[in-house]
Amino acid sequence: MYTSIYRPKKIEKFIGNKVAVQSLITWLLDWEQNNKKKCVLISGLTGIGKSLLVELILKKFDYNIINLDVDENRTKEYINSYIKPLIKTKKTFDEQENALVISDIDSVCDTGFISGVVNCIKETQIPIICICNDRYDQSIKPILNYCFDIKMIKPKYDEVYVLLYDIVINEKIKIKESRIKELYDESNGDIRFILNSLQMDIKKGFHEVMKNIKISNIFETTGLLFSMDETIERKNEIYWYSPDIHTLMVQENYINNIIGIKNDCKKMENLSYSADALSDADLFNTNECDWELTPYIAINTIRATSNCNKKSMIKFPQYLGIISTQNKNKREKINYENVKFLNNEEKCEKQIKKIKSKPKEASKPKEASKPKEASKPKKTK
């Protein structure tokens, strides 16, 4: 992944926000003398590099990083039990200074957590760095008075272009500058999005390798994925020709193309392997917005075909057919051309006309009640 390969290793390679970089370094170096602002709050757009900036600066000055991530049990009890003892320990056993980093502080559900963080800021003997996307979120308002505020802004196009130019040269990518400008405009400052999109473009056809792919339809590409004559590299190229549908196509057809038909045990073993691979692909596919997971979806889809060989007709996914039929039935339930919606005035007028058109019925006199007949005595034998 380009996001891993071209991730900066030194603060000098960090893209943009030079003012924020210098502000954070100055705050960190003067932390002992700063009695009022023991915590810094770093805010900015998603993917702009907030966590990366903190990591690079703390590593540059040889700090031991104590991370409090969003997936941990972030409650007031957790703060009091585990975090408070750590903030009172200035150095590790090897004389490395400690620093506490709290990520995504604006996404905490427990209201007691923020008050616990405030108490930590008041008592801390080590630097505390809080990271958030929305600096104006009401949930983090209690800590603002205790924090040194650093706002990160969207990097300029010229700053991002330097990084992309190096990638294009190193990877020997043929791409127009207009496409790079388009990626920058779409990203809204998210450098990870730009790198992932650039890599996706290569997979889809910008790279020279993809020029050799000549495929007519989705059924043919799925057949090539099941073919044992194709290499993993070739299958990877074919998968990216239509990544939105290939996983569903493999899921629909892998049972009929599994190998080991004569040996029932081997067949079940191969089926289990392919099913596990497709399950893994489905787990990675739960978050559609995370572009970093798409290569893992691809490799697990290809892994599901490793014990298969094309020997039957490729079928279209029944799941998509069922969804299409359900949507069609919903549309046919209502004939929208014949439906007329009336406003309140029209409804009132129609109701008045109905009342006026009905003739008044004359009141009928009540009939006198008939006397009850006496019951006849039973005959005795």
Characterization of the model:
The protein contains 15 helices and five strands. The N and C termini lie far apart (109 Å). Helix 4 (76-87) packs parallel to helix 5, helix 10 (232-239) packs across helix 13 (294-304) and helix 12 runs antiparallel to helix 13. A five-stranded parallel β-sheet has the order 2-3-4-1-5, covered by helices on one side. It has three domains: 17-151, P-loop containing nucleotide triphosphate hydrolases (Rossmann fold, 3-Layer(aba) Sandwich), CATH 3.40.50; 157-210; 214-320, Up-down Bundle (Zinc Finger, Delta Prime, domain 3). The longest helix is centred in the last third of the chain and has 21 residues, at 264-284. It has helices at residues 2-5, 18-29, 50-60, 76-87, 111-123, 157-171, 177-187, 191-206, 218-226, 232-239, 243-253, 264-284, 294-304, 318-332, 344-357, and strands at 39-43, 63-68, 97-102, 128-132, 147-151. The chain is α/β, with parallel strands linked by helices and 381 residues long. 24% of the residues are buried. Helix 5 links the parallel strand 3 (97-102) and strand 4 (128-132).
